[in-house]
Each structure stands twice: as C-alpha cells, then as structure tokens.
Amino acid sequence: MYNLLKGKRGIIFGALDSNSIAWKVAESAHAEGATFVLTNAPIAMRMGEINELAEKTGSEIIPADVTKLEDIENLIEKSVEILGGKIDFVLHSIGMSVNVRKKIHYTDNNYDFTHKGFDISALSFHKVMQVLYKKDAMAEWGSIVALTYMAAQRVFPDYNDMADNKAYLESIARSFGYFFGRDHKVRVNTISQSPTATTAGNGVKGFSGFINYAEKMSPLGNATAQECADYTITLFSDLTKKVTLQNLFHDGGFSNMGVSNEIMAAFEDQE
Ligand code: NAI
C-alpha cells in the first residue's frame, strides 16, 4: 500500500455485502490510511453484514435513507463530529430501480416506481452534495465520486429506467461540481464501471449475457469491483487534484470499442 489517503476523512455510502463496490472501497481506503464513516439505508442494515466491515476498518456506522434530507443532515453533522474535522472524500455507491426489481418492462414503467428509483439513484447525489455544501462540510481539495454505468450514453435495453437515472446522476456531477470547485476547491466526478457481479448488478435482467459480452468486447476484460476500488482511491488521493466534472470510464476499454475479434468470430459463419 502507498498511504495515499493518510489522515483523510471520508463518508462511504452503499456497502451492503462483501460483493459491493463500496465494501472494496472501504477496505482499500482503510489500507491506505483513511478514517471514515460507513452509511446505508436502515433497511439494508438489517442483514448486519456492514458490522463486520465496520469492525475490520475501525469505522462507525450511521444509518441514512438517502431520499430523506434529515437523515443526510444527521449523517453529515455526526460524521464531522466523529471524524474530528471536515470531510476529504465521499463515495456515492447507491442504485435501485423498483421497475427493474419488479421486472416491469421499460415501455410499461410504473411512474411511482420510476420516481422512487430516481430519488434513490440520482437525486440523492444532489441531496448529499447540497447538504455538504450548505454545511460547509467538505475540506478544500476534497473529492466526491459517484458510480455510474454506460447505459447513460448508449442503449442497453434491459437496463430499464436506471439508464435515465444514470444520465441524470452524471449531469448532477457536472452541475454541482462547478459550484463545489469554484467555491470550495472540491472535485466531483463519476466513474463509469464495467458490469460487476453485485446485488445491484445481478438484479438487471440477462446480467450474465451482459457481463460476458462486455468481457469479450473489452481489450483488457471487465474491470472488477476491487479494480474499481483501486481507481476510486486514486480519485480520493492528492494525485488527481485537478480532475473534476468528468465521467471517467473504468471498463477495460469497452466504451471505445466497435467490435472485437472474439465477438466477430461468433457471427462469421452466419449468412
Ligand atoms: P450493491 O447492491 O452492493 O450496492 C447498492 C447500494 O445501494 C446498497 O448498499 C443499497 O443498500 C444502497 N441503497 C439502496 N437504496 C438506498 C437508500 N434509500 N438509501 C441509502 N442507500 C441505498 O451494488 P453495487 O454494484 O456495488 O452498486 C454500487 C453502485 O455501482 C451503484 O450506483 C450501481 O448502479 C453502480 N454500478 C454498478 C455496476 C454493476 O454492474 N454492479 C456497473 C456500473 C455501476
């Protein structure tokens, strides 16, 4: 390890179980010398797995439903108190679509479900940043990262309304990132990650086809959850101070491919 986050304080949203990308980020941030608060929706904590992560990383857990402003306000106030100063890094690693969960087709979306998923997956990023901004809780040269997927730019039919949520999320990163950069020297970016076998990932219809196709299309293969954590750590470190308002693809090269030899081979004998 490189001590890249020595002395830095953070808040990590979204560690559900050991497959979660946020879980790997927490383990890596701890190994790099950071202290942080872990948070998740109260309902997600019933499973209790997050306690194991908290113990391992010497962290406190503060429950917060990201759709509720009062939960976010409490989280941020307590985090500053517990960590003993302003926050250097924040990971938003949250996504949920009720339409996806209930297997409702995109052309038949239920708008109450659409609203709920949008609130959790996209608007929550604005809410978190607005509370951090108003409370002046971010340290100068701090870094805020949210996780996203390329369905924000290109069509992936079964990604459903999450595609729209991700487009909105990425836009918030730019819009809020301007004000955070101008006023507090804080950077805001999204990482657009390869398909990854997690609870959220596996919930997408046809996920195994999705992940195998991306693997064969990408010159470096799919990026794993641990590799995503490694990349996230660089964005939290002082080595990336002037990177902001970016959507950064972390996908083994997938996003710039047209077709690969392996995918071509599967179609060559077809008329
Ligand atoms: P995950 O299922 O482990 O994490 C999603 C988290 O969102 C869970 O911890 C869940 O409890 C939390 N959450 C849901 N509702 C919440 C609420 N109301 N308040 C607070 N937290 C809430 O799955 P994963 O894959 O680690 O997801 C993390 C992020 O990575 C998500 O934004 C996801 O869309 C994104 N991503 C995932 C990819 C994949 O293939 N797994 C690919 C690209 C991006």
Overview features:
271 residues, alpha/beta, Rossmann fold, 10 helices, 44% helix, globular, binds 1,4-dihydronicotinamide adenine dinucleotide, SDR_fam, oxidoreductase, EC 1.3.1.9
Topology at a glance:
Blueprint: E1 9-13, H1 21-31, E2 35-39, H2 49-57, E3 60-61, H3 69-83, E4 87-92, H4 98-101, H5 111-134, E5 138-148, H6 162-184, E6 187-193, H7 199-202, H8 207-217, H9 225-236, E7 247-250, H10 261-265
Parallel strand pairs: 1-2, 1-4, 2-3, 4-5, 5-6, 6-7
Helix pairs in contact: 1-9, 3-5, 5-6
Task: Describe this protein's structure.
This protein has helices at 21-31, 49-57, 69-83, 98-101, 111-134, 162-184, 199-202, 207-217, 225-236, 261-265, and strands at residues 9-13, 35-39, 60-61, 87-92, 138-148, 187-193, 247-250. The termini are far apart. The chain has one domain: NAD(P)-binding Rossmann-like Domain (Rossmann fold). Strands 3-2-1-4-5-6-7 form a 7-stranded parallel beta sheet, with helices on both faces. The protein is an alpha/beta fold. The longest helix is centred in the middle third of the chain and has 24 residues, at 111-134. The model has no long low-confidence stretch (mean pLDDT 97). Helix 3 (69-83) packs parallel to helix 5. The protein is globular. Helix 1 links the parallel strand 1 (9-13) and strand 2 (35-39). Bound molecules: 1,4-dihydronicotinamide adenine dinucleotide. The site of 1,4-dihydronicotinamide adenine dinucleotide has 26 residues, from helix 1, strand 5 and helix 7. The active site is at 149 (proton acceptor), 159 (proton acceptor). Its EC number is 1.3.1.9. It comes from Wenyingzhuangia fucanilytica. It catalyses: a 2,3-saturated acyl-[ACP] + NAD(+) = a (2E)-enoyl-[ACP] + NADH + H(+).
